[in-house]
Amino acid sequence: MSEDHAPWQSPVHRDLAAELLRMSRRKGLVHPSVGLEKSAFAILWILSDGRPRTLRELTAELELEQSTVNRQVNAAIKHGYLERFEVEGSLSKLIRPTEKGIEAFRRDGLLRAERLEQVFADLAPGSPEALLHELRAFNDAYERTQTRHGAGERDENTEERFKRGLG
Asked: What residue spans carry the region label Disordered (predicted)?
């Protein structure tokens, strides 16, 4: 392979981009026994704080198109993980997890946590704390750059969700 690292500024920049691409190809580093689709897990993660959401709120927190979130919510409802309900005085229906959804989230969450613990046990050199520190710094810098270039800002709910660990 050529020593050329174009379009990257340096071999380090190229290699970091390659590692980020490698990470993005993973399917969430999950245990093979998980039952929830990635989208259902993400929606249940947001709702795990106990506060029902409108479709619009879920769309904003997931940073996806409303049609995509609507399709994902409908699929999760069909599988019995979510339900829509009416609130008096509100035009929008709210979405909340069912008991089946809460149980599936707990089960899959434990399997995902187990897998990450295995990865962290094999993480050398380094530590989960150091990785968290660097990833958070990278994501903060990335978002500042996006904001400076007009790509938009995350809302407070999205920031809180990411602080809890989704993403």
From this structure: 145-167
Going by C-beta distance under 8 Å and a sequence separation of 6 or more, which residues neighbour residue 134?
none
Cis upstream peptide for 97 (omega within 30°): no
CB distance 58 to 95 below 8 Å: yes
Encode pLDDT of 106-157 as tens digits.
Answer: 999 999 888 889 889 998 888 999 999 999 999 999 999 988 987 654 555 5
pTM above 0.85, yes or no: no
CB 99 within 8 A of CB 81: no
Kindly provide the b/e burial profile for residues 4-14, where b requires at least 16 CB atoms within 10 angstroms of the residue's own CB: eeeeeeeeeee
Question: Residue 95: what residue type?
Answer: I
CA-CA distance, 104 to 36, in Å (whole number)?
A: 7
Q: Which residue in 123, 157, 136, 139 sits closest to 47, CA to CA?
A: 157
For residue 71, what are the β-bridge partners? none
